[in-house]
Write a structure and sequence with these properties.
The structure is a homodimer of 297-residue chains.
Chain A: H1 3-22, H2 33-43, H3 50-60, H4 66-87, E1 97-98, E2 101-102, H5 104-107, H6 110-129, H7 137-151, H8 156-166, H9 173-198, H10 203-230, H11 233-236, H12 242-245, H13 251-255, H14 257-273, H15 283-294
Antiparallel strand pairs in A: 1-2
Helix pairs in contact in A: 1-2, 1-4, 2-6, 3-4, 3-9, 4-6, 4-9, 7-9, 8-9, 9-10, 10-14, 10-15, 14-15
Chain lengths: 297, 297
């Protein structure tokens, strides 16, 4: 199976799983409908679902079936969706369009968008802590600890903070790399490590997936920055040229377009190379590295 | 020991524990300093620390030492502090003063306040998932599941959403009770249930603490609403008369001042009565019920 087919079929699974969780009938208390509606609006109906497919495919290397990784993948996607809702807020990136739709604070209001993000972040941990996600409490605990670290102040939220601080400043290349490793890299790397946790991977397999996730995260961000310069707003479902308008620190500004493209190619090769020990079992993950580096949206 | 002494000594423990966690030296990656500073500003140097003391005292009923409940109590307080930061935002309650200090979005900026709240919520789950918090992964998992439910869309965040929806509307008494049970009640009840989790309480003890926590939460909110009408802004460290100005739904508006005071007295009695089975071991928790109902700030 090619990666493009795999991501499509997994996206359908994730959409269904998110929809099941976000109807609000699974917990002991029914959530208020206004908030639940905003959370569904934020999470359903779009998105590449890249992180969930990485999690599921990394777990599959160790024989974990997709349905046994689906809850963890759903939780991870909830965290990704929360980050988009908060990043789009007027006080943050002030975006009007996301996945071709009005952002949550415009479709609802700002207060509801803040709470919808909070709710999506929180439900991720609720999902991971539920015994249905994995029968072994120690595995659930590792998934939670890893996600909290990847999403929190020393991960994604910290990266967003660095990004806001950087506006209008000229960062050194290593500062940009740190920012991006936290803001985008941490959650993508976690997707791969979570697969290793579910698969009870040994140290060497674990390290290989850590490397793969780290490099893939770098490639993802660099491709994203390139698309912002060279991409098509229609295909992307969001504005282009935003980084430049906002004075954002990107590697393209620091390295130049040609060197940035060459680095992306190197990263793709490095990601593919990190999977060598898994042989043909990792074919889809190799496809993911190509997809991430060469995507047009 | 009287409750007022206990809450003072526990507050000092919690302050130290929060300070230890929020220096950012415990995790594998250092957090960006701007965000870490805002999180410390939001969490340190004030607050009654009511929820942590409830957690620690409920756990103590079962012989759990304070130092073995401290990490869970710290995590809970992080969630409480996150909720204050987000509730104070301009898009929410738009408050300028909290614990006698400028609110986080004024001391820093709005984006940093949103991220500081996100960071505090996330670190709570990181703390709870750390083996140091409890040696049994199943206990950690129960603590996490309970906290996520109490804080999330069908708990505190849901209550805040209902509260925003209610502005300018006249709610029925049962609607106000539901709103308050989610917004304030869920986290206070969780504090007590978390003590039962740490203490591995049996069904009857567990139910008694569930009842105690639920009633105490109701009393806390009613006392809070009364203070907003009759309290002293200097002692409170925040504005009074806010509910009326904002057209907020409170039980005082629905029941009248005298009936609200009578209900608070009834709730205090009910909270004390729910502790009967614990005998003299629950003296401090009885004091907590009196403290919550009769506090002046």
């Amino acid at each position: 199976m090619r990666f493009s087919d795999k991501i499509t079929s997994t996206a359908a699974l994730i959409e269904q799983s998110l929809s099941d969780y976000l109807t609000g009938t699974r917990g002991p208390v029914a959530p208020p409908e206004q908030l639940a509606g905003a959370m569904r609006y934020a999470a359903l109906g779009g998105g590449k679902r890249l992180r969930p497919v990485l999690l599921i495919e990394c777990a599959a290397l160790f024989g974990v079936r997709a349905e046994n990784a689906l809850d963890a993948a759903t939780a991870l996607e909830c965290v990704h969706c929360y980050s988009l809702v908060h990043d789009d807020l007027p006080a943050m990136d002030d975006d009007a369009l996301r996945r071709g739709q009005a952002t949550v604070h415009l479709a609802y209001d700002e207060a509801t968008a803040i709470l919808a993000g909070d709710g999506l972040l929180t439900i991720a941990f609720e999902i991971l802590a539920t015994p249905q996600t994995h029968s072994d409490a120690a595995v659930r605990g590792e998934l939670i600890l890893g996600l909290a670290r990847a999403a929190g102040w020393a991960g994604m939220a910290g990266g967003q903070s660095l990004d806001l601080e950087a506006e209008g400043k000229t960062l050194r290349v290593e500062e940009i790399r740190r920012l991006q490793a936290l803001k985008t890299g941490a959650l993508i790397q976690y997707a791969c490590v979570a697969g290793a946790i579910l698969g009870r991977a040994d140290g060497d397999d674990w390290s290989a997936l850590e490397t793969y996730g780290r490099v893939l995260g770098q490639a993802f961000q660099l491709a994203d920055d390139l698309l912002d310069v060279t991409g098509d707003a229609g295909k992307l479902g969001k504005k282009t040229g935003k980084d430049d308008d906002a004075g954002k620190a990107t590697l393209i500004a620091a390295l130049g377009l040609d060197e940035a493209k060459a680095e992306l190619e190197r990263l793709e090769g490095e990601a593919v190379a990190s999977l060598e020990r898994f042989g043909s079992r990792a074919e889809i993950l190799r496809g993911a590295a190509r997809f991430v580096s060469r995507r047009e949206h």
